[in-house]
Predict the structure.
Amino acid sequence: MVEMMIIMALIGILSVSIGWQVTRQLSRARDSERKDDLAKIKLAFEDYYNDNESYPPDDTILTNCGGAQLMPYLPVIPCDPSTHDPYLYEPDLATGGYRVYAILENPAEKSVTDLNCGGSLGCNVPGFPAYNYGVAVGVPVRM
């Protein structure tokens, strides 16, 4: 009986360990997808700017997440892989630049600390403290 309990305990410990590792790897994969999405959006915005001498309207991502609003620059506007919500797009009218933000699941990610977007304020986006990663043109990522 004791031997069975030891075996069951070992199986339980191994299951928890494997489950934790799988969850961690899936989180990293979603964060990688978010960073890739923002890089694609940035490239599409630059192509759009080259053709139109302005960046897309401020509701482009918000109202068209998953849509084809940016054709031919971006076939489908990407959404957050976990929540399926749009990324936050903030044009900066003063400089003509913009910022696009995402929420990475791992706040200790190197890119978050490199952008100085860690901690309780994230990237210091007013009203949106959870955004801890972004790309920007013409302005710094952190407000």
Summary: The chain has one domain: 2-137. Residues 2-137 form a domain with the Glycoprotein, Type 4 Pilin fold (CATH 3.30.700). The mean pLDDT is 89. The radius of gyration is 20 Å.
